[in-house]
């Protein structure tokens, strides 16, 4: 131990006693509010969800009708639940394989610090800040078969208007388009920040070696921002799992329940029908999925950093 | 040689402009739509209005319930911001500054909220809020919202506090300054950038929140603007021009706020992302 640190250590030891009071006060005063809020409104409801999911219960009185895994069986036997899982997986795939490459491509175009690029970044990021519910409503006008932009487009092509959001085949694709519109700017911003932190000398060196533009991207920039791509993919997956607000104004799960996501399914079949046990079971499944994704992500990042 | 460099440049610009149109197109359609009569909206949904009718916008601006919705959202959002800043900064300060038995465990407990979706526990949360007798009140939104934002806020604060110079605390401590006083006198005043970032984030999240108010608020008196907007949409099902005017007026504050605070939003985003 060096001299300076040993002096500091002995000094902090000698004043340990009166430090205790100030330290103890701080811990006892400053931690409980966060602890209490988090426990009451985040942790306990989560445990409650696991508990309620074992009962058939409409939310009044106390749950007594113990059905063991009956709710889970009901959920897993419900065709619409699997449809909602499929839809969630579609959003997930579109987010990962269309949105992220798009965001990366755009980030590569606008990451350098020029006034024009700043403006482009601002515009691309704008949808992220708008309320999902408002975005969904605007797009439901765009897609409207009577009055919307889509109808005008079809008419100008001499076709009959298609009610995109009322069409089983098109409605969910329309939703994924809105999701891309809403969130690609967020992912672009993550990539821009990462690209800006790549040392310029590395790019110069690669160019002097005769690397072409796309080779610089492929072999220098993308490998160096791989961590950011991982973060962005993680957000994309978790975000897809909890998609709700955008869907409500667009289709509200219709037509004939074909466009539910897991959360709109939970809301429609659990909450609006006050089937607390059933809805909690869906919540528990969602929780397991989210934890699974997180563990997978942790594993991947650990593997990379080794 | 010039053309060889010019073509990729033009292609780049073309792509960027296409994306700009994709992003701004729906928004301009909404802004213009609020100025059109329904007849014109049918005939000309995305062009510039032939006549700028301001009656739909002014009808909303003179509608007390519109202001009520915005007011409710503002009260809830500001309370959430204040509560989040105080509670999260205090907790993060303890984690950053003080080592005590179990601090690591408590920390990972509070950060566990980063992992799972809000919707997971929405039903039990509804029951909890009801059992506390908070249903249909501002607190029903403020408290759970703050609680769910804590994990990220504590993480951002803690990272920032740990970067403050340690010598400062040692010097103050020798002068007889306690932990709590140090927090008020030095840590908070030195932390304005992170306070702004967390505050802006909490505000935007609260302002845009839909699911939670939808579940815990029933009376129109307490509707936040997203609830009011869906209500309005239900009432004026075929009058898209009024709905578009409503959307435009209610997202306008968000756009202005975004342009003013974008520095902090981006900082929080990348700060959280790097750590996340």
For the largest beta-sheet of chain A, the strand count, sense and barrel status come to: 2 strands, antiparallel
Which architecture name of the largest domain in chain A does CATH use? Orthogonal Bundle
- How much helix is in the residues of chain A? over 70%
Count of separate structural domains of chain A: 2
Largest sheet of chain B: none
Question: Which geometry of chain B do the CA atoms define?
Answer: globular
What is the structural class of chain B? mainly alpha
What integer value in Å does the Rg of chain A equal?
A: 26 Å
The CATH class of the largest domain in chain A: Mainly Alpha
SSE ordering of chain B? HHHHHHHHHHHHH
Total count of domains of chain B: 1
Helix content of chain B: over 70%
Which fold name corresponds to the CATH topology of chain B?
A: MetI-like fold
Total E-strand runs of chain B: 0
Q: Kindly estimate the percentage of residues of chain B that lie in beta strands according to DSSP.
A: under 5%
Mean pLDDT of chain B, to the nearest integer, reads: 88
Sum this structure up briefly.
The complex is a heterodimer of chains A (306) and B (276). In chain A, 75% of the residues lie in helices and 1% in strands. With 306 residues, chain A is mainly alpha-helical.
């Amino acid at each position: 131990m060096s001299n300076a640190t040993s002096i500091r250590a002995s000094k902090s030891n000698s004043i340990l006693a009166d430090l205790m009071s100030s330290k103890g006060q701080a811990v006892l005063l400053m931690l409980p509010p966060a602890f209490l809020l988090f426990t009451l409104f985040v942790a306990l409801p989560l445990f409650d969800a696991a508990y309620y999911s074992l009962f058939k219960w409409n939310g009044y009185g106390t749950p007594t009708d113990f059905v063991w895994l009956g709710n889970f069986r009901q959920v897993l036997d419900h065709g619409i639940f699997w449809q909602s899982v499929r839809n969630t997986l579609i959003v997930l795939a579109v987010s990962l394989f269309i949105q992220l490459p798009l965001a990366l491509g755009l980030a590569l175009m606008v990451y350098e610090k020029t006034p024009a690029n700043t403006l482009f970044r601002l515009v691309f990021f704008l949808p992220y800040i708008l309320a999902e519910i408002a975005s969904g409503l605007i797009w439901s006008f765009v897609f409207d078969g009577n009055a919307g932009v889509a109808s005008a487009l079809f008419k100008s092509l001499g076709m009959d208007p298609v009610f995109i959001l009322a069409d089983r085949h098109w409605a969910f694709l329309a939703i994924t388009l809105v999701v891309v519109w809403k969130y690609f700017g967020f992912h672009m911003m993550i990539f821009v920040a990462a690209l800006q932190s790549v040392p310029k000398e590395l790019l110069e060196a690669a160019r002097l070696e005769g690397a072409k533009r796309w080779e610089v991207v492929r072999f220098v920039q993308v490998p160096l921002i791989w961590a950011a791509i991982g973060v962005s993919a993680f957000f994309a997956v978790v975000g897809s799992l909890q998609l709700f607000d955008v869907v409500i104004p667009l289709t509200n799960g219709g037509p004939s329940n074909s466009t539910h996501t897991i959360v709109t399914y939970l809301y429609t079949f659990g909450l609006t029908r006050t089937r607390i046990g059933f809805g909690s079971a869906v919540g528990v499944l969602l929780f397991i999925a989210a934890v699974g994704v997180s563990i997978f992500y942790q594993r991947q990042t650990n593997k990379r950093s080794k | 040689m010039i053309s060889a460099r010019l073509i990729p440049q033009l292609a780049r610009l073309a792509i960027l402009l296409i994306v700009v149109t994709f992003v701004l197109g729906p928004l301009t359609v909404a802004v213009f739509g609020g100025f059109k009569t329904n007849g014109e909206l049918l005939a000309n949904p995305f062009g510039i209005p032939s006549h700028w009718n301001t009656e739909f916008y002014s009808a909303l601006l003179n509608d007390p319930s519109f202001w009520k919705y915005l007011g409710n959202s503002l009260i809830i959002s500001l309370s959430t911001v204040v509560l989040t800043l105080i509670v999260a900064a205090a907790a993060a300060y303890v984690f950053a500054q003080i080592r005590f038995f179990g601090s690591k465990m408590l920390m990972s407990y509070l950060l566990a909220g980063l992992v799972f979706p809000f919707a997971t526990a929405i039903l039990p949360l509804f029951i909890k809020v009801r059992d506390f007798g908070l249903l249909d009140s501002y607190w029903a939104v403020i408290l759970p919202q703050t609680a769910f934002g804590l994990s990220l806020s504590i993480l951002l604060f803690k990272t920032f506090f740990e970067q403050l110079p340690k010598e400062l605390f040692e010097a103050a401590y020798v002068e007889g300054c306690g932990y709590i006083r140090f927090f008020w006198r030095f840590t908070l005043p030195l932390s304005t950038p992170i306070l702004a970032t967390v505050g802006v984030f909490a505000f935007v999240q609260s302002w845009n929140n839909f699911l939670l108010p939808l579940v815990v608020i029933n009376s129109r008196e307490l509707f936040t603007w997203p609830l009011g907007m869906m209500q309005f949409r239900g009432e004026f099902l075929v009058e898209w021009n009024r709905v578009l005017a409503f959307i435009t007026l209610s997202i306008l504050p968000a756009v202005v706020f975004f342009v003013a605070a974008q520095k902090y939003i981006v900082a929080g985003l990348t700060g959280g992302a790097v750590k996340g």
